[in-house]
């Protein structure tokens, strides 16, 4: 809880700098509680192929790239901003 308060306080002071540095969303996201879904994680883990370093599904292989992570982060930031505006 101390980190969450600290992050809020620092965010209020340093938001423009953090945005320019590209860390604003990451710092804010680090204060959220993440609910784990063990069944989902285990279900996806069962599809992992260590030989090909991909997930093997019935429709084909798939993997997660750094670009995918970056795009999801941007989607998350935009969604959060929309929720704040509502």
From TrEMBL:
Highest rank taxon of the organism: Eukaryota
UniProt GO MF annotations: transaminase activity
Domain spans labelled Aminotransferase-like plant mobile: 22-71
Coiled-coil regions, chain positions: none
Signal peptide interval: none
Pfam families according to UniProt: PMD
GO terms (BP aspect): meristem maintenance
PANTHER family noted in UniProt: AMINOTRANSFERASE-LIKE, MOBILE DOMAIN PROTEIN-RELATED (PTHR46033:SF73), PROTEIN MAIN-LIKE 2 (PTHR46033)
Protein name: Aminotransferase-like plant mobile domain
Organism: Arabidopsis thaliana x Arabidopsis arenosa
């Amino acid at each position: 809880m101390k980190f969450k308060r600290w992050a809020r306080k620092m965010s209020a002071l340093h938001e423009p700098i953090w945005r320019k540095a590209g860390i604003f969303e990451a710092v804010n996201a680090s204060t959220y509680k993440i609910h784990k879904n063990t069944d989902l994680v285990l279900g996806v883990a069962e599809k992992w192929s260590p030989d090909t370093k991909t997930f093997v599904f019935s429709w084909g292989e798939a993997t997660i790239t750094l670009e995918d992570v970056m795009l999801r982060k941007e989607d998350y930031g935009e969604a959060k901003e929309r929720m704040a505006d509502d």
